[in-house]
Backbone:
């Protein structure tokens, strides 16, 4: 009996060793991410402590006070599942905390994906260390000849694995923008469908954007200056998003039409199309200065367009379903989605 137990034990150890060797890069990445996340978790203070601290600037104190209002509205009025997320704050000291790597086929909107245990496949990979993100981007570019992008993340959800804190840079946003971001991330913690990143991100954006307007309307009134100002801000944002989405459709059609062409010709046609997109952008009439001249020096690749497709390509589908089946009742709609989709 002891011999059999010993053999079983050795077999289990051997399997663990094989698994670790086979998944060395994944385990190493997981440990690096855990280290970064623990650094965030271990260096947070409670939001109440931040608010009452006499050293906290009044402008940030006022924004921090809004967080609890937004959370309460999300739980009570939108049907977001209750959590202790955003009851603590992490001081970023003005720096970015997370860097996200994306990669995409240069002549189609086919993203590179990374597989993670439990949560499934993701078309992006995050790092707390900027250099690690840059190194991976350069490696992909050199080995796979893909379009690659590195961007910062304004926030992220750990899907309940940790208590997500407010990142201090979030408090630089307007009240409406802060509400949209917090509701977006809280939505991820409420409903997250495995291997459905585009649906998850579109839904979170949809709930976040509409939830922010509902929050401001309930607090100040539907015709209040605060609501009117925020709606003006998001009109520009919507115009920008729609232009990028339409441009993405044009690029997608081009890619499908030139499948059999030589790479050199594909490269030239793609360059001409993107140059046209950049040039035509200047004809848009934005109210604010935020988007004006966006493409003057920035030359986008497929990862840029893919990110807008990932977060915004299903907005009209969600809008139609909300209005036709739920008469615009966002809370009922979210309750329906929670019952329909298995979530982590």
Residues:
């Amino acid at each position: 009996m002891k011999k059999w137990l010993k053999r079983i034990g050795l077999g289990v150890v051997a399997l663990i060793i094989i698994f670790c060797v086979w998944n060395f890069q994944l385990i190493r990445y997981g440990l690096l991410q855990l280290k970064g996340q623990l650094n965030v978790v271990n260096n947070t203070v409670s939001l109440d402590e931040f608010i009452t601290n006499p050293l906290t600037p009044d402008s940030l104190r006022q924004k921090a006070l809004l967080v609890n209002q937004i959370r309460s509205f999300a739980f009570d009025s939108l049907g977001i599942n209750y959590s202790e997320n955003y009851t603590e704050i992490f001081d970023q000291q003005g720096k970015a905390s997370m860097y996200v790597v994306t990669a995409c086929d240069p002549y189609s909107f086919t993203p590179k994906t990374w597989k993670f245990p439990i949560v499934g496949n993701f078309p992006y990979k995050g790092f707390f260390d900027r250099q690690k993100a840059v190194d991976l981007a350069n490696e992909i570019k050199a080995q796979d000849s893909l379009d690659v992008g590195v961007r910062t993340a304004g926030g992220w959800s750990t899907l309940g694995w940790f208590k997500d804190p407010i990142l201090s840079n979030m408090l630089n946003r307007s009240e409406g923008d802060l509400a949209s971001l917090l509701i977006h991330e809280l939505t991820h913690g409420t409903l997250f469908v495995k291997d459905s990143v585009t649906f998850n991100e579109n839904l979170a954006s949809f709930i976040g954007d509409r939830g922010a307007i509902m929050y401001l309307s309930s607090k100040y009134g539907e015709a209040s200056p605060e609501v009117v100002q925020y709606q003006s801000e998001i009109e520009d944002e919507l115009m920008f998003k729609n232009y990028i989405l339409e441009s993405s459709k044009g690029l997608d059609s081009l890619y499908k039409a030139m499948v059999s062409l030589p790479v050199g010709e594909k490269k030239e046609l793609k360059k001409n199309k993107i140059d046209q997109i950049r040039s035509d952008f200047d004809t848009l009439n934005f109210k604010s200065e935020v988007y004006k001249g966006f493409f003057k020096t920035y030359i986008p690749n497929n990862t840029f367009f893919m990110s807008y497709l990932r977060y915004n390509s299903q907005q009209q589908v969600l809008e139609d379903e909300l209005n036709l089946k739920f008469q615009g009742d966002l809370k009922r709609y979210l309750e329906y989605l929670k019952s329909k989709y298995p979530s982590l």
Remarks:
- The first strand starts at residue 44 and ends at 46.
- The chain has twelve helices and eight strands.
- Confidence is low (pLDDT under 50) at residues 2-23.
